[in-house]
Amino acid sequence: MAKQSGFLKEFFKEKKTVGALAPSSKFLMRRMLKDIDFDKAKVIVELGPGNGVFTKGILDRMAKDAILFSFELNENFCNYIRETIKDDRLVLLNQSAEHIGDALKEYNFHKTDYIISSLPLAVIPKKVKENVLSACTKYLDPDGLYVQFQYSLNAKKLLKETFNQVDIKFAPVNIPPAFVYTCKP
User: What's the domain count of the chain?
Assistant: First the structure.
């Protein structure tokens, strides 16, 4: 899958699960990962890795004994990540983020330190969105962070209802520009 054309093709084919016309920029990736304490993080969950831009950034910064669970519904993106990222710390799951708890339990973890989400909240059905965010709050460590990007401020109300503290920053160097929500339980 070529980066740009593959993303565009998947966007038009899977509008309910792919929310971007192009891969995220490295600038957005750095903005998303800015508040993550990779020295203390042992368990990280990534939601919607797409073609793996954030996945690579997370793995590059993660400790050698940490683990990354990445949930991706799109089979083509999963196959692309499997072919291009070879790292034993990555557990790539071709399933809904609603199953965070099952994956953690399978690997004998009770909580995750951080959740990095690229899920297109605006297009996900309401019940699925509620289930995903419920799983996130249930399995996120009380000292952890949930970091989400969106292309609009539409998720602001939902995230403020879900988390105790929500900080929003603008990331202009991305196509399209994005908002980064950093949320504390």
Answer: 1
Burial of 9 (0-12, 13-18, 19+ CB in 10 A): middle
Quick: pLDDT tens for 96-114.
999 999 999 999 999 999 9
What CATH number is given to the structural domain containing 154? 3.40.50.150
Per-residue pLDDT tens over the stretch 84-100: 999 999 999 999 999 99
Q: Which structural domain, as residue segments, surrounds residue 58?
A: 3-184
Rounded to an integer, what distance in angstroms lies between the CA atom of residue 139 and that of residue 99?
A: 11
pTM of the model: 0.87
| 3-state SS, residue 88 | coil
Q: How many CB atoms lie within 10 A of CB 173?
A: 12
Beta bridge partners of 45: 69, 115
CB 154 within 8 A of CB 124: no
The dihedral region occupied by 87, where left means phi > 0, alpha psi between -120 and 50, and beta the remainder, is: beta
The number of beta carbons lying within 10 Å of the beta carbon of residue 156 is 14
The residue whose two tokens read 């996120």 is 140
Q: What is the mean pLDDT of residues 124-128?
A: 95
